[in-house]
Structure formats: structure tokens, C-alpha cells
Amino acid sequence: MPPSEEVAYRSNGLMEAIWNMEEVKVAQKFDLFSNYWNPKIAAGLNDSYIKLTEFKGEFVWHYHEKEDELFFMMKGRLAIKLRDREVRIRPGEFVVIPRRVDYRPMA
Fold first, then answer.
1. How many Å apart are CA 20 and CA 53, to the nearest integer?
2. What is the extent of the structural domain holding 73?
3. Looking at the structure, do residues 45 and 66 belong to the same domain, yes or no?
């Protein structure tokens, strides 16, 4: 992570646990959010980030060229439209969207 990103994430309280090897209190991290569809890095794991975000309404159709995306629901429901079907997840469930698969999340 570039130093400027590191400082930004540390300043909003989301990344400090990674350097201190402390537990991450996910519910408390969500209290720091002020807008939707704006993921924040909560931790790093090998070559990946664990990001948290809040959803509301619909997002645009898109795909990720180089990475898969995992959606794990803490609260509420999420529908993910694929070109040929729809996947719905509820609290305690997750789905992985493979790279280069076009999808549209809707809360």
C-alpha cells in the first residue's frame, strides 16, 4: 500500500489493527462509515485486502479484470445480478464473484 493510502486508512481507524495484531471489531468499524458503496480497507491478508462497505440501492454493472470479489453479509440482504441469473445473500452468507464476470450489486 502506498504511504499516502496507509496514512489515510490509519487516520479513519480502519487499518490500525493490522499493525497491532489486534482483533477487528467489525460492527464498530461500520459506525465510522458516512456514505454507501465506498469500501474501506479493514485488513490485509497475503496479497489481498479485506474491505468493508455499506450498500444502499443499486450499483452499476461492472467487473474486475484482475481480482475475484467476495461479498459476505453482516446485516441486511444483497442481490447480485449476473447476466444470466441473480444471486441473493443474507446475513451469515457469502458469494465469490470471479474476475472478469460482469455483475451488478443491489441492496
1. 22
2. 55-107
3. no
Q: How confident is the model at residue 18 (pLDDT cuts 50, 70, 90)?
A: low
Residues 50-95: tens digit of each pLDDT:
889 898 999 999 999 999 999 999 999 999 999 999 999 999 999 9
Last residue of a domain, one of 54, 71, 93: 54
Place of cell 441469473: 85
Domain count, the chain: 2
